[in-house]
From TrEMBL:
The keyword Cell membrane is assigned to this record: yes
Protein's membrane topology: Multi-pass membrane protein
Key words, A-Z: Cell membrane, Electron transport, Membrane, Translocase, Transmembrane, Transmembrane helix, Transport
Organism classification: Bacteria, Bacillati, Bacillota, Clostridia, Peptostreptococcales
Record field: transmembrane: 6-31, 38-57, 69-88, 100-122, 134-154, 166-188
GO cellular component labels: endomembrane system; plasma membrane
Organism: Hominibacterium faecale
Compartments where located: Cell membrane; Endomembrane system
Pfam families referenced in this protein's UniProt entry, alphabetically: Rnf-Nqr (PF02508)
Entry-linked HAMAP family: RsxA_RnfA
Location, primary (coarse class): membrane
Keyword Transmembrane part of the UniProt annotation: yes
Protein name: Ion-translocating oxidoreductase complex subunit A
Annotated InterPro entries: Ion_transpt_RnfA/RsxA, NqrDE/RnfAE, NqrDE/RnfAE_oxidrdctase
Length: 197
């Protein structure tokens, strides 16, 4: 159990996919203007990450590794992720139309979101067990959600701020804010190691 907690805390805080590894930047910058869109995207990515890990880990171990065709990993994983995103998209369109409309073009972009592909490949490369991989994916999704919600809150405050110089308004202040948020997560680097010391 201790190992699972360390895996999750590490991937949520220390090795956050968006703020430390800079994966999934497109939806991070594109959908974080409103809190409800950011939350919806974070939950959708978390769901897809866990589902993709649940599907790709056995495919890697029992199909690609068994038949020595590991070189097809990226292609197979992208196909699996694309199928899962279509499932999520159809579900949201049917049961949550407002969220579906607010996510817009960014929902299909989960298919090519490098954070989703990254977590599935890193689970294999780090030789995690199936259960560890699922918790790692869930933690990566929660970390993505946390980054999205924090950044959406900051962007909301920036839009109301009248002190931002004209030359910094828009994309420049957004990128500066993202970099400062990223730096703040570096402070967690010693916390996880010291949790169970």
């Amino acid at each position: 159990m201790k190992e699972i907690i360390v895996i999750m805390m590490t991937v949520i805080l220390v090795d956050n996919f968006v703020l430390s590894q800079f994966l999934g930047i497109c939806p991070f910058l594109g959908v974080s203007k409103k809190m409800d869109s950011a939350t919806g995207m974070g939950l959708a990515v978390t769901f897809v990450m866990v589902l993709a890990t649940a599907a790709t880990w056995p495919i890697q171990r029992f199909l690609l590794d068994t038949y020595n065709i590991g070189y097809l990993q990226t292609v197979v994983f992208i196909l699996v992720i694309a199928s899962l995103v279509q499932l999520v998209e159809m579900t949201l369109k049917k049961y949550m139309p407002p969220l579906y409309k607010s996510l817009g073009v960014f929902l299909p972009l989960i298919t090519t979101n490098c954070a989703v592909l990254g977590v599935t490949i890193m689970n294999i490369d780090d030789e995690l067990t199936y259960v560890q991989s699922l918790f790692n994916a869930a933690g990566a999704g929660i970390g993505f959600l946390l980054a999205m919600v924090l950044f959406a809150g900051l962007r909301g405050k920036l839009e109301d701020c009248k002190l931002v110089p004209v030359s910094f308004q828009g994309i420049p202040i957004t990128l500066i804010t993202a970099s400062i948020l990223s730096l703040s997560f570096m402070g967690f680097s010693g916390v996880v190691e010291g949790l169970f010391a």
